[in-house]
Task: structure prediction
Amino acid sequence: MSTVQLTERPARSTLFDGLSRYLPISVTVALLVALYLGGVANYPNFGNSQVVAKLFIDNAPLLVIAVGMTFVILSGGIDLSVGSVMAFSTMACAWLTVDAGIAAPVALVLVLAFGTGWGLFIGAVIHRFEVQPFIATLVGLFLFRGLTLQISDTDVSMREIGFFQWGMTHVDFGNVREGGFWLPYLSFVAIAVVIIAFAVLHYTRFGRSVYAVGGSESSALLMGLAVARTKIGVYAVSGFCAALAGVLAAFATKSANPLANVGAELDAIAAVVIGGTLLTGGAGFVLGTLAGVLVWGLLNTLIAFQGNLSSWWARIAMGVLLLAFILLQRVLARSGEKRRA
Amino acid sequence: MPDIVQMTGIRKDFTGVRALDGVDFTLKAGEIHAVMGENGAGKSTLIKVLTGVHAPDAGRILLDGRPVRFHSPAGAQAAGISTVYQEVNLTDNLSVAENLFAGREPRLGPFINFRAMRRKAKALLDDIGIDLNVAAPLSSYSIAMQQLVAISRAVDIKAKVLILDEPTSSLDRDEVAVLLGVMRRLAAEGVAMVFISHFLDQVYEIADRMTVLRNGRLIGSWDTADLGENALIGHMLGREAAELEQIERVAAAHHVEDETPLAEAKGLGRKGSIAPFDLAIRRGEVVGLAGLLGSGRTETARLLAGADRADAGTLEFDGKRLTGHNPRTAAARGIAFCPENRKTEGLVGDLTVGENMILAMQAARGWARSVPPARRERLVAEFIAKLGIRPADPDMPVKNLSGGNQQKVLLARWLLIEPRLLILDEPTRGIDVGAKADIQRLVAELSAEGMSVLFVSAELDEVTRLSDRIAVLRDRELIDVLETESERTHERIVDTIVARGGHE
Ligand SMILES: Nc1ncnc2c1ncn2[C@@H]1O[C@H](COP(=O)(O)OP(=O)(O)OP(=O)(O)O)[C@@H](O)[C@H]1O
Ligand SMILES: [Mg+2]
Result:
């Protein structure tokens, strides 16, 4: 209808703006490849395909909580309760099946529902009362560790419950002796979680509003987005993921250790950040989180192969990487501000 | 015509401030209704109370005759009220298309259909007359474009009530014309609109009725035809319009004597933002930058201010060639830059008015030597009075101020350090007529005292009134400098721009 055509292509090609979003994740992937090739070059047998498969076995629970954490961090929040909720969920599985004698599938549903409910509750507290997410979820960190120890302060075995064999039942790909590998069901669960999270974050309204809220909560509110639902939703997702990770741990070890997963929330946060998600929210990818978890896994694998290093070196390396990535994010954010101006 | 919105006896208290006091407001179907008032009069608050951002402390709201109370903008939107708030309300980490359709994306089953969304976004922007890359992040576009995107979004929601709170504050002539065209079309379709603007010409061009607020109280509602401009200003400010005229004449009668340039750019340029240009600013001179949106006005100012690094040419200041020019060294030399985008580049929302004002001065002194409290208080009080910042409370967190008053605080920050060269990018945007005149007078006074000023404004009247010389820009190139008094006219600037560029 108008005769004037108002044009404003940005001064510089937007291609760079678009691509700079992918820089951190590219760095992570490059790092992943470098670590892997370094391992192959230095250690015989590192090239076995089972080495990669094992990453998805050992780190399945971490992957699941890191995915939940990605939602929370993208929205601009943080969830410190996941490690404790996870340990509590494993313990609850054991307690419900071994002590209370409830059928395992029912117990499993109860545990998952409880984790989700906890997330909903703490999300509502954070939103309604404008409590700092850091503080609110810290409550969960203490509460659930305490409850876990209250149920049992020693390991509880679930070996008697046949149902828990399911998780480690595995599928062979090729002949395992001749270059093939195997993966247990629980790894498939973790991979499915990543795929679903990817679809939700990138292709649903809920997912996009997570990014919008992380970008600017007040703008999202004024745009008429469902901010309350989004903010509460991400904690529910995180709570569900933490409970699911607890269940996966139950499958993997068939026992519940009350002191398991201490500090797991921090590992998850580190994986998310190394995967390129901004701690301030609004930018990042769930596939980056997958890459972040695999970096963590590969570091541990390398140390295991080396044989004479203590496993703490993985943490030290992770710390250094974290620092590097936080600096990288700052540099990118700054150059972004400059370009925009 | 039936009343669509009826607000009666609205009261809203913020801590220590009564923003609205018994305000009545009626909006009829198909009308364009301007809400007028000074900065801080309560216009935005009225909108926010209507759309569920704030809950009113008293009063009733009827929508289509039924009492309503919204708890969030989402609720108001669902009931058919679509709003562009004064603060550009978009998220700049998402793409243009996503911002346009956030919350109402086209879907296939549960999944967003991005291709359809981009197509619809393109069609929507085409219809309004904007050409953007809809897949690019919103952050890659200027505030003006973001404002147009916000408007497009609000228009597309197809509401029965459309509220535009200072939608034109960073738009240029052509864009304003486009927006007013869209508004007329919507009015013909029966959409009721609320329009808030400090540009009286726009208001008179488009509005059917006006409601005037002053200090949170209703002054009255009139048909536009029944309320002359002077009477309107009188109602808004509670003082006579004649006072303003006087101020303008003060500004006009002013001469530059000193011929030595204070700042001189030779072939200064930066790839992709502004072609190399020569420009000299003499002592005590006001140089205006005129040009359309995207012509490189802001970019030129930023280069001179050291906010961007030049990749060609030289800049001399006070006879010395500047190397490693950046905002910090610039401030130390006495170059102050008041940027265009106050939201992201200027104010610290949680600090108080006084603290925000003192920031630049403190930075210029170095952090070890703090400004003595007594001096600080005196200066802050002085500039609050000079610029008419309201409420005149130095301890108020700046985020609680109205949009126009925030702009004044930012301006005060730079005036406070008594710079030798003051670079102002759109200093009067979103500022009411009274305060605008105050600011213009202040600029004129300062330059008479020997301060050099580079003045960027989309309002040609303002540029011609204040400037001793006017540099005209087009397509990121400085195309002419208008030197003599007879050249410095509105028409001449437009002619220059059109002549150099052929036609669009
Ligand atoms: N969130 C808040 N907290 C405290 N005070 C507020 C808040 N929002 C607005 N105010 C105060 O309410 C008054 C009215 O502000 P409002 O934003 O409605 O003004 P306005 O008419 O829109 O002005 P402008 O033309 O500058 O945009 C001002 O005195 C302002 O300081
Ligand atoms: Mg306002």
In short: DSSP finds 18 helices and 23 strands in chain B.
